[in-house]
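Narrative summary of target 7.
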Amino acid sequence: MNGSSLVARDRAHLWHPYAPPVAPLLWPVVSAEGVRLKLADGRELIDGMSSWWCAIHGYNNPVLNAAIEEQAGRMAHVMFGGLTHEPAVTLAEKLAAITPTGLERVFLADSGSVSVEVALKLAIQYWRSRGESRSRFLTVRGGYHGDTFGAMSVCDPVTGMHTLFQGFLPRQLFAPRPPCRFGEPCGDVDFASMEALARRHADEIAAVILEPVVQGAGGMYFYSPEYLQRLRALCDELGLLLIFDEIATGFGRTGRLFASEWAGISPDILCLGKALTGGYMTLAATLTTREIAETIGNGEPGVFMHGPTFMGNPLACAVANASIDLLLGSPWQARIQAIEAGLEAGLAPCRELPGVAEVRVLGAIGVVEMEKPVVMEKLQPALVEAGVWVRPFGRLVYLMPPYIIDEESLAVLCKAVVRVLSGKA
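Modeled conformation, tokenized:
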């Protein structure tokens, strides 16, 4: 394949995420195997991104290939309105069984952003079904929940897209980012701002929403699980719903199957996506309690007002079932521990580099935070030349590799980051 020709054709018509109409940096991929991406010019890159955190089993996995091929031979898609099928039913059963206690009703959607939209709508409609008009959401700064309008409104109001879409986005309530870091206790002072906002606006808050333990695209920030324990207790006291967005953290990324397990609590609504299908299909799920579902069902109009065309797509559900089985049947905890150790050792030299503010690691997440924003036009090509696929953003150079990565490949990833940031690449 002629890579330059493909890039030229791409730039004539395609628009890439978070990029101008004509993308300045593109590398054509012709195949992927294990943890490596093969470029059109024959080079191979070790993938440190898991394709935006979803390809936890790597690429071209025979188990997932077989699941999707088998399902395609039976039924690729059928509408979910008035119909059902085995892959969706099985997936709902699996998710209800493995997620935190009390989440029994599953709403399937197309993407993580949509699962957040569903969660927000569920919360609003729940209160309407109870005869209350609550439509505001409380969250923390530094969060990211997606790019659709409802999701954008609960993203960080400074680093997100609030300014760009001011006047269209609902005005939500924002507490400071949790100041208590992961591994530290969470005292009264750390929780005071969140508690004050919740108490002051309790009668208008539909739900509190946040990413448990790890804030993803908002800054790769790790905070104390005790903050979540305090938040759960406060929501129970005030009668507020609690939404956890585990789109990035679900399915083992932090070292626990779900990040909320670090706190030992359950939300009222849970959003899942990304790794749900092992990176094969776009699929997301929003789970909620029986009480919330029954309240909506008993209210007016008695149905939840949402229905994606590709809801419960059989191909996506089939590969999601296979991905969950593959994960749970693997030594995933040991793999995450090994990746954590490898990231800690491999990225440690970055702490001595000029311009580095902090290096932090949790589970299969390694983050090098710079003092100033990185220059993508220089950094990304240098990383490719070093033989790795790492996509920095803002002030962050981070790694979230597939769980199947071997020790040697992980070391190569880390060494490439160290060399490029030191200017020696």
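The longest strand covers residues 103-109.
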